[in-house]
Amino acid sequence: MQTLHVDLGHSRYPIDIGPGLLGDAGLLDARIPGRDLLIVSNVTVAPLYLERLRRSLPGRRVGECILPDGESHKTLATAGTIFDALVAQRQNRDATLVALGGGVVGDLGGFAAACYQRGIACVQVPTTLLAQVDSSVGGKTGVNHPGGKNLIGAFHQPAAVIADTDTLTTLPDRELRAGLAEIVKYGCICDAGLFDWLEINLPRLLARDPAALTHAIAASCRLKASVVARDERESNVRAILNFGHTFGHAIEAATAYTSYLHGEAVAIGMLIAADLSARLGLIDREAAARLRALLERAGLPVAAPAIGADRARTLMQMDKKVRAGALRLVLLDALGNAVVTADYDESALTATLTEYFA
Amino acid sequence: MQTLHVDLGHSRYPIDIGPGLLGDAGLLDARIPGRDLLIVSNVTVAPLYLERLRRSLPGRRVGECILPDGESHKTLATAGTIFDALVAQRQNRDATLVALGGGVVGDLGGFAAACYQRGIACVQVPTTLLAQVDSSVGGKTGVNHPGGKNLIGAFHQPAAVIADTDTLTTLPDRELRAGLAEIVKYGCICDAGLFDWLEINLPRLLARDPAALTHAIAASCRLKASVVARDERESNVRAILNFGHTFGHAIEAATAYTSYLHGEAVAIGMLIAADLSARLGLIDREAAARLRALLERAGLPVAAPAIGADRARTLMQMDKKVRAGALRLVLLDALGNAVVTADYDESALTATLTEYFA
C-alpha cells in the first residue's frame, strides 16, 4: 500500500492506494470518521463491493443509497435522492458519507455531503481507474446541467481517499481505457517522464499488471495533489488539470452524456487541444502525433462527433474557465507542460474546431 | 447610512444600512462586482423594487429570475430554476448573483450562487426586516427539505450586504413583527442593553420610525457579525444565534412552512426555550415573563400549535445541532446571555414540550 497526503493548510487528508483495502477493517476504522455512515453506490458497483466494505465496518450504523449507473444520472435530481436517504435515515451533521464507485458516484456523493446540513464528512472509495487517478482527489464535486457539465457543485475536500486496486479487476475494458486517458493527461501537462513511462509500459497497464497500475495511480495522485495544494479553488494553476476537458465537455454535452465515457471525451479533447497547440506553434506536430499514437494504442477514440464547429464553440462558451467573456484554454507548450491562456489566435481555434467537429 | 464590516479573515465584506441605497448608483457600483449580473427576486418584491435597482446599475448586463413568494418555495427545485436561469443567460464564473428580497430569496439566491460553477459572487439586498437583521448576514444559505428546515445548503459569504431601510415601508405588518422577533433574539442571547432598549422603544419600531429601525438593524447586524467572526462554521459560539430556532424549526416543519412566518415560529421557540431555561433553574420565571410580554406587545404569536410533544421531539431530532445523537439546545442563563448545552434534564424538556405542544 502507498499512502500519499494532500495538504491544503486548512485540511489535510490521506490517499491510500493498494490491494485489499476494502477488507482492511483497521485501515477503514482509522480513515472513516463518525459512528453513522451512509454508503452511496450504484447498481453496478454495490453488488460487487458493498458487502465487502460493510463487513469491514463493525460497530458503525451503516445506511446505504444505491443510485442508477451512468453519467446521465449525475443530476440535481439524483443528488435529491441522496438527500432523501440522509433525511430518511436521520443522519446528522456528524455522519459520514462514503462514496463507493466511480466518478459519477464520487461527484454526486461529494456534492451531497457538501450540501447536507451545510457539509458533512465524505470518504471517497473510488472503484474505477478514472476515479482513482482523478475525480476522487481534490475536492471538486458536482452534478451536470443540460447546459453543461459540472455546472452545479461545490469544493468539498474528502476526509480520506481509499483506492483499492483490487476493484479494478472487475472494471470493463472500456472504463479501464477511459481511466488511462486521465493518466496520459498528467504526463502531458506536467510530467514528461510519466509520458515516456506510459509509452513503454502501456501494455502492462492494459494487461492490468498490479504493480504498473499502482505506480501509475500513485504518480497521478501525487501530481494532482501537488497541483491542488498550490491552487485549491482553481484561481490559476489548477486549471491545467482541465487539459482536454473544455473540448471534452462540449463533446459530452452535445451527446447528452450518453455516447462517450468522460475519459473518452477527454482523450479526444486532448487531441484537439494538442492540434490547436501545434497550429499556434507552441508544440511541434511530432508531439501531437506522439499523443495520438499513445491514445490509439490505449484503444481510446481519437475522432470527434460531427456536431459542427459552431455548436462546439457554443457549448465551450459555457465552460467554467470563461472569464469576462473570454474562453481560456489549456494548451501545451511541450509534451509535459501545460499553459492556460485566453490569448490565442481565434482563426486557429476555428480551424481546429472545423477540422474535428465539421 | 451606517456601514459595518464582517471580518472573517479569508473574507471581509461591508454591510450598508440606511435609506435610499437602491437609488445610489455610486454605492452599488462600488459594492457589486462583475459585469454580468443575475437579479433573483420574487413576484412580490420585484414589482416594487426591481426597476429601481436596475436603473442604478448602468453599464451592467442584468438578467433576472423571478421566483414565487413564500417559504414553501424554498426548495431544491426552486434552486434548480435559478440554475436554469444562470445557464440560459450563459452566466459564467465571474457573474454576480444579486438577491433582492426577504430571507427566502436570500437563502435560495445565496445557495444557488454557492453551487453555480462551484461558487460565484453573491450580493444580498434584503428587503424585509428579518433578512436585514439576520439572514442576509453571515453566509448561511440553503433550502428546506420535507424532513427539516435548511437541511440542504452551504456556507457562502456574500460579497456585500445592502440594506435599504426604505424597503421596509412596503413591508406588511405581520412581516415587520416577524423581523422584530429576531431583534429580540439578539437582546436575549447577547445584549441585555438591547433588550432593555426594545422594551422602551418597541412602539417606535412598530410605528416604523426610521431612526429607531436603523438603530435596531445596525445593532443586530453588529452583534451577528461579531458572533460569525468568532465562529463562521458554527463549531461552537455561533450556535447561540439559533436561540428559539430548534423549537421554531419543528413548528415550521410540522405546519409545512405555511402557517407561520419564520420569525413567528422563532418567537414561539424562544418562549419555549425560556420556559425550559426557567424549569432548569437557569433563569427566573420573571425573565421568561419579560420575554413573553415583549413578544406579545410586538404582536407575535406566543402559543405553539398542538402537534403533540412526541412529534415535536421527532422533528427537533433532525436539527443540525444534533451531535452523536444528542440534541444540543440553546438556553438562557440570563436575559442577555445564551448557553449551548446537551447536558440538561430530559424530564424538564418533556414537561416543556408537553406544556407547549400537547
Give a verbal description of the structure.
The structure is a homodimer of 358-residue chains. Chain A is of the alpha/beta class. Chain A folds into two domains: 2-170, Rossmann fold; 178-357, Up-down Bundle (Dehydroquinate synthase-like, alpha domain). Helix content of chain A is 46%, strand content 20%. Chain A has helices at residues 25-31, 46-55, 76-88, 103-115, 129-135, 173-190, 192-206, 210-230, 245-254, 262-279, 285-297, 309-317, 346-357; strands at residues 2-7, 12-18, 36-42, 61-67, 96-101, 121-126, 140-145, 148-155, 160-164, 322-323, 326-327, 329-334, 337-341. In chain A, the strands form four sheets. Chain A has a seven-stranded mixed beta sheet with strand order 1-2-9-6-5-3-4, sandwiched between helices. The first copy, chain A, has a two-stranded antiparallel sheet with strand order 7-8. In chain A, helix 5 (129-135) runs parallel beside helix 8 (210-230) and helix 10 packs across helix 13 (346-357). The first copy, chain A, is globular. Chain A starts with a strand and ends with a helix.
Largest protein-protein interface: A-B, 40 and 40 residues
The CATH class label of the largest domain in chain A is Mainly Alpha
CATH architecture of the largest domain in chain A: Up-down Bundle
Taking all Cα atoms into account, the compactness measure Rg of chain A is 20 Å
As for the number of domains of chain A, it is: 2
Number of strands of chain A: 13
Strand proportion of chain A, as a percent range, falls in 15-25%
Kindly state the percentage of residues in helix of chain A.
40-55%
Spell out the CATH superfamily of the largest domain in chain A: Dehydroquinate synthase-like - alpha domain
The H/E string of chain A reads EEHEHEHEHEHEEEHHHHHHHEEEEH
Question: How far is the N terminus from the C terminus of chain A?
Answer: 47 Å
Structural class of chain A: alpha/beta
User: What is the typical, i.e. mean, pLDDT of chain A?
Assistant: 95
